[in-house]
């Protein structure tokens, strides 16, 4: 398939919106930017189009998709009931990086829900995403625009790397603001439960709906318990090299990573450090700061891109600094636990 690129960093041309709408309505695949990561979209009402998403990504069939909408009134065609907690969360965080799980309407294709009796819905705040979703006026199913298992894509270049030739259109929207995927909250249980941490933190959610819980399996090392969100059980976000994460007192983290570098002396080593620690490492082949420890937003924004840069450098092994399980640190650590396949050393 020949993939067409359209420009959509802040604005998108009306004729390009029309091309995208037509492509969706004909059952095609369109990658578009959102504030979290790039999304690989298809018409959420068209089972044939939905199957193409799974094929292009190599996504397991039992991993359900998130439906993206432009307006609250679109919910009527998708969900069977909306709890008062869900209303409060939508009022506070939509449009934005929050996905809510609702009881589904029977008419939603099984390809969206992977046969579950619930459905995930999000209303992105990205201007171009909004314009596209508003114009097409159907729910668009869109998982992250990457080959399954690889780090999600936050720039056009990475989307092209994974999906050129596999999709009809890629909209180039520059670099994604948030850099990690949306927070997923199940509103079919009381109190609501975070199934995937993201940009919107548990603390922020709890301010709106007190008593918010979190599926503990997603922020601890794999102990054999099955996460409630199907997608969380897969290997994810993984660079090609084996990655190891070190968490705890920063000086101890530096000491452990330097020791690990010395022990792996003959290999090509990458270290993903922070502004505060960059100058403390000796002997890394590829050394990069993800940002300041005082600004976790920057670290979230850079994380997937820098894991991919480690691949560009064809390193043999990656050592990554970890973060405290608080605020956005929870979401970053959830991604690092997966990227490292559980090779995380806590409590240093
Ligand atoms: P991605 O589209 O790559 O960001 O992945 C979407 C995430 O939402 C995956 O982890 C899915 O398992 C999760 N998800 C989608 N629908 C549901 C649902 N009905 N119940 C629980 N998790 C869901
Ligand atoms: Mg994904």
UniProtKB/TrEMBL annotation:
It comes from Peptoniphilus equinus. This is Threonylcarbamoyl-AMP synthase. Its main location: cytoplasm. One of its GO terms (molecular function) is L-threonylcarbamoyladenylate synthase. Its EC number is 2.7.7.87. Keywords: ATP-binding, Cytoplasm, Nucleotide-binding, Nucleotidyltransferase, Transferase, tRNA processing. The keyword Cytoplasm applies. Gene3D superfamilies: DHBP synthase, Threonylcarbamoyl-AMP synthase, C-terminal domain. Residues 14-200 form the YrdC-like domain. SUPFAM superfamilies: YrdC/RibB. It comes from the Bacteria. It is found in: Cytoplasm. InterPro entries: DHBP_synth_RibB-like_a/b_dom, Sua5-like_dom, Sua5/YwlC_C, Sua5_C, T(6)A37_SUA5, TC-AMP_synthase_SUA5. Pfam families: Sua5_C (PF03481), Sua5_yciO_yrdC (PF01300). It is an enzyme of class 2 (transferase). It catalyses: L-threonine + hydrogencarbonate + ATP = L-threonylcarbamoyladenylate + diphosphate + H2O. The keyword Transferase applies. Required for the formation of a threonylcarbamoyl group on adenosine at position 37 (t(6)A37) in tRNAs that read codons beginning with adenine.
């Amino acid at each position: 398939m020949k993939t067409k690129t359209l420009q959509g960093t802040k604005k998108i041309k009306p004729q390009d919106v029309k091309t995208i709408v037509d492509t969706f309505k004909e059952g095609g695949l369109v990658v578009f930017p959102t504030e979290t990561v790039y999304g690989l979209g298809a018409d959420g009402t068209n089972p044939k189009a939905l199957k193409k998403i799974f094929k292009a990504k190599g996504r397991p069939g039992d991993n359900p998709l998130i439906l993206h909408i432009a307006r609250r009134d679109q919910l009527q065609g998708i969900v069977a009931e909306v709890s008062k907690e869900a209303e409060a969360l939508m009022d506070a965080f939509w449009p934005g990086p929050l996905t809510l799980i609702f009881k589904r309407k029977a008419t939603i294709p099984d390809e969206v829900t992977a046969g579950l009796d619930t459905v995930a819905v999000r209303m992105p705040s990205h201007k171009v995403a909004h314009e596209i979703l508003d114009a097409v006026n159907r729910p668009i199913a869109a998982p992250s625009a990457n080959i399954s298992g690889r780090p999600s894509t936050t720039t056009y270049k990475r989307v092209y790397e994974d999906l050129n030739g596999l999709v009809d259109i890629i909209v180039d929207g520059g670099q994604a603001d948030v850099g990690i995927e949306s927070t997923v909250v199940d509103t079919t249980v009381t109190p609501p439960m975070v199934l995937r941490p993201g940009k919107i933190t548990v603390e922020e959610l709890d301010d709106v709906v007190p008593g918010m819980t979190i599926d503990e399996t997603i922020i601890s090392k794999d102990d054999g318990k099955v996460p409630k969100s199907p997608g969380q059980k897969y290997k994810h976000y993984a660079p090609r090299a084996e990655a190891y994460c070190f968490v705890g007192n920063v000086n101890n983290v530096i000491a452990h990573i330097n020791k690990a570098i010395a022990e792996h002396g003959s290999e090509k080593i990458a270290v993903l450090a922070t502004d505060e620690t960059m100058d403390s490492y000796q002997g890394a082949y590829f050394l990069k700061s993800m940002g300041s420890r005082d600004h976790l937003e920057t670290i979230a924004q850079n994380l997937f891109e820098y894991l991919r840069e480690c691949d560009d450098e064809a390193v043999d092994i990656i050592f990554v600094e970890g973060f405290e399980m608080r605020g956005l640190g929870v979401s970053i650590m959830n991604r690092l636990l997966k990227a490292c396949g559980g090779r995380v050393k806590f409590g240093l």
